[in-house]
DNA sequence: ATAGAAATGAGAATCTTGATCATCTGAGCG
DNA sequence: CGCTCAGATGATCAAGATTCTCATTTCTAT
């Protein structure tokens, strides 16, 4: 049960929070904007406010349940934290997001930071390109 | 003269554009928000609108004269494009920005992208940490 | 100098996200 | 099982960043 995650985070188990967690777990894209979650909830017949979605997502982020990513600048996307850190590749054409993890890059980042006198705490790495995958519809969402 | 850059970019040579270029060239931090440029212009006695600053910076970006960076999320910063590509380290404490370039990271990025079926066009890499430099005032701007 | 196209400035508009506050809901207790 | 109250919600408002609109002004070419 995910409710244990909520309790562990000191968050009361409420309907909106469970529904939002559910959507994050069942989403195919795994990277959703607050608005997308909001619309999905409305479509499911839930009566929820957009402010609640933002509030809950911010709390989830603080609790380490989700990550907030700025993949294209204006609208943040949220993804369920499933343990492993990873970075992202975004297709300029269709907006598809792939995840990757590269130990060499991670290591070099730490080395570079150290070399510049920084104790690295976090990083944001996003690659942008055209996915040559035949599944790419080659038109933006 | 920088005016040649403007002409080459197909942009009319106007006072606001030259002043903005000047500020970007003479700034010590090399990473300025639109508002910072705007305020500096006002302080110099120029009569300029904030909208013009944003407009001009966007045009400069399209012309390849400046880069727009999202170092901390809410406000974009602009830096003069001086040829070499580089990435950034930001101090969580004092906000200081350092630039770096690491060929290993660049290469691995291309390899990772190719491996995932992407033709990489661009990337954004920002490291966040605490700068142990004694020059760091250890308090946010 | 002049005309026409492009650029500017002021403010309105938009978009995303956070704040406010009255109302409602969930967890513990009798 | 119903009660109570802290905490959560929803509607609206608000803030911050950036873009749009449009009347006026400024370059560039003639």
What would your notes on this structure say?
The structure is a homodimer of 141-residue chains. By secondary structure, chain A is of the alpha+beta class. Chain A folds into 2 domains: 3-80, Winged helix-like DNA-binding domain superfamily/Winged helix DNA-binding domain (Arc Repressor Mutant, subunit A), CATH 1.10.10; 87-129, Ferric-uptake regulator, C-terminal dimerisarion domain (Dna Ligase, domain 1, 2-Layer Sandwich), CATH 3.30.1490. In chain A, 38% of the residues lie in helices and 23% in strands. Chain A is built from 5 helices and 6 strands, in the order H-H-E-H-H-E-E-E-E-H-E. Chain A has helices at residues 3-8, 15-26, 34-43, 50-62, 103-115, and strands at 32-33, 66-69, 77-80, 87-91, 97-100, 118-131. A 3-stranded antiparallel sheet of chain A has the order 1-3-2. In chain A, a hairpin with a 7-residue loop joins strand 2 (66-69) and strand 3 (77-80). In chain A, helix 3 (34-43) packs across helix 4 (50-62). Chain A is globular. Chain A starts with a helix and ends in a 10-residue tail after the last strand. The relative contact order of chain A is 0.13. The model of chain A has no long low-confidence stretch (mean pLDDT 91). The interface between A and B is medium-sized, with 32 and 33 residues. Strand 6 of chain A pairs antiparallel with strand 6 of chain B, so a sheet runs across the interface. Chain B binds a DNA duplex (30 and 30 nucleotides) through helix 2 and helix 4.
């Amino acid at each position: 049960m995910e409710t244990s995650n909520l309790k562990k985070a000191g968050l009361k188990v409420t309907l909106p929070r469970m529904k939002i967690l559910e959507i994050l777990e069942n989403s195919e894209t795994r990277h959703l904007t607050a608005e997308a979650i909001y619309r999905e909830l409305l479509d499911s017949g839930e009566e929820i406010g957009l402010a609640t979605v933002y509030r809950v997502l911010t709390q989830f982020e603080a609790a380490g349940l989700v990550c907030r990513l700025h993949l294209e600048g204006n609208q943040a996307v949220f993804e369920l934290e499933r343990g492993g850190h990873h970075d992202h590749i975004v297709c300029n054409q269709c907006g598809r997001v792939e995840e990757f993890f590269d130990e060499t890059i991670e290591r070099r980042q730490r080395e570079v930071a150290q070399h510049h006198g920084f104790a690295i705490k976090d990083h944001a790495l996003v690659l942008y390109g055209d996915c040559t995958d035949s599944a790419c519809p080659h038109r933006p969402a």
